[in-house]
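agent: user wants the structure for TonB-dependent receptor from Aquirufa nivalisilvae. delegating to structure tool.
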Amino acid sequence: MKKSLLVILLTVFNISIVISQGKTISGKLVDQLSRQKIEFASISLWKKDSTVWKGTLSDTLGNFEFRDVPNNLSFIKFQALSYKTRTISLQEFQASKSHEISLEAENQTLNEIIVKGEKAVASLQIDKQTFQTKQFQNAANGTGMDLMQRLPAVTINTEGEISLRGSSGFILLVDGKPSTRTPADILAQLPANIIESIEIITSPSAKYDADGKAGMINIITKKNTRIGTAWSGNIMNGGTLPLRFGSDLQWTFTDKKWSVFAAADYRRYDIDGYRVGEIRTKYQDTLTYMPSVGVRNYMDFQYSIRAGGSFQASSKDIWNWSAYMGEKQTDRTANLHYQDFINANPSRELFSAFNTNQVPYRQFYNQNLFVRSGKFQTYNIDYTRTYANQGKLSLLGLYEYSKLGGPLNNYDTYEGNNKLLLWERSTETSPLNAWRFQVDYSLPLRANNKLEFGYHFRHLNHQGDFLFERFAEGTSSWVSDPNYTDKMELVQRIHAPYIQLNGSNKQFSYALGLRSEWMDRTLTHAGEPGKTYALNQVYLFPSLQGIWKLDGEKTLRIGYSRRIERPTSKLMSPFKNHRHAETVETGDPNLLPEIANVVEVGLSKGFENFSFTATAYVNFLHDKVFRVNEIYSRTILGRTYTNAGNSQSTGIEFLTEYRPAKIWKVYLSGNLYQFDVQGNFRGIETQQSSFNYNLNGNTSLDISPKLRFAWDFTYLSKSVTTQGHDSDLLLSNVSLKYTLWENRANLNLQCLNVFNSNIQTIVTQTPTFFSSTDYRKWDRVIQLSFGFRINDRGQKTKSTKTEYGEKEF
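agent: tool returned. relaying tokens verbatim.
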């Protein structure tokens, strides 16, 4: 199978070389001093009567190209932000051997230009929407999480779970490089100050990994492109009770051919919280009602060190490399007071009233400390070669090592006398090794068409050593429990060839592709010696994208893609895990991947001071993984994961930007969708549906040329889950930002969660049990920050994060 696909790709490659001959005008734009590429510059060809024949933009490597050029043209003009416009006669350009055009930087800095005008918050492209992060002032000095929750179709609940169009299954890229760490943990380790823009790719093309049932999100980080040395940094303080502070620093050195950078950041951000809950069960002949209340606090710290660089060996050869090392730890403390009421009357209903004035069957105090830690390392190198026919060869190699784990301590005592009821502890050590190699080739064809094809390989080895012990009070010793103690190993290999055809004309661009992924997965564990859970399957992923430039500044976009969501090690662990007093969790080693088919149609319209974008979509999900809860004992729920049905999301997302005055800007976005889920688990039918929506608003007002006020809000509606629902959630923030030293520094005063409304209720129920938990986070905080830039233009830089570790974190 793999050999046949390789032969097909090589045959197409040879045929394409033959048909790609044609008359063109092409070249490359570079900075006059640094010789660095200039991307997204405007290049136009002019007729002898001084009218424009055609224009284009340089790509991310500074390359540009015109095809089918007539003979009546006179000169070519080059224009780029922060550079002087250059005009060259066509005769002079064609006489040049290298066709490498250098532009001279203007004396005025980018900072001065920013004062005069700003980019739109969002732009619609053939396969994505791009959002400029500097428009979200209230997210400054936070993390990538703070930026994400301000985007349309992205929601984050009070427990930090991120969803795109109502689904938590999406892949996060950092500067185009994929990562299978959970998006929440990657974003939590990315300072918002280093993010230039965010791309939401809900209908990815075949050249991307097929992972992510809801699509992909690409984080573009900043870099400096000016010759010499540049520094940028930020420092933030948000109080000492609880402790909140952070800082980040980046250094960049750029020469004519070399560019290197180093960066570091540290963040400590503790949050106090509170939890109110209740459990009702009907187990055998006993009805149980168990309310609980207590503190639920978080201690969170993280740091990372990043370094990398690029080397332009020639005008056609570029090398890039980067390294990332980081650590993240979250300590969740839940100290809860429980009351246990029982009634041995099987005729009573689940919601029968209990006399809470009577003495409970028992009262106990549960002290639960769950520590989740991770140490991450990622190293990658890539090489790009551009040929004379503007064909492009790209090679990438990436290695990741992560060490995941953390102890759990569960300590129960009777209320009143502090007598020991139960004491459990567990430790986890989970090293993870992963490799990625990919080769991609892009070949220009006639009539503005381009053929892309390549091969991607991924390898994952994830091991886990889990020890669970109980304290035996009689012998004052710890005893291992074999039901919760185990060792496991997951090995997964993915081979993925793809081919894609792109084309464009004045009004229309398209991309048509096909990707094949062969997955070989094995899981073994000590609890079943000699037993191997294996899955070996081939999947096909077609994709189609198109975009039309219509009259009246209108843009129409269509897209279709088939996606896959592969289960993590946690969901497949075939042994019991007891993380807190109310739940015992077991995975399923036979879980199948979820398969999604996504169709969308988008329309964008621009006016003088107003713009509007709307995208309608449908996401059909097959073999959905259900998180199923059952009664494990009288006071404990058993949780497992299984492929038990399908779901469908049908909705529309919108984005508007309005400027009532030069100094005032208003931004509003949202997502409205109908969510339907159907399933069958052990003969029990499940069917849930709800109409859900989320809204994001942002307004900024320039009080003076140096002082800006910003206010934003995020609202999540009530939403159904497989066996219950999540309540609504409202968050709002305000800030004042004052710029100093000709916009090279700033002071930012922020008030986060101004209404102290970070409260959400999670409900789960069946005919035999009911669970309701009210999570409250007291994270209303006033924080002050200072940021600076020295010789920094704030452009994007190539960086990397982990490929697998964060997803398992």
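agent: one observation worth passing along. The chain has a mean pLDDT of 85.
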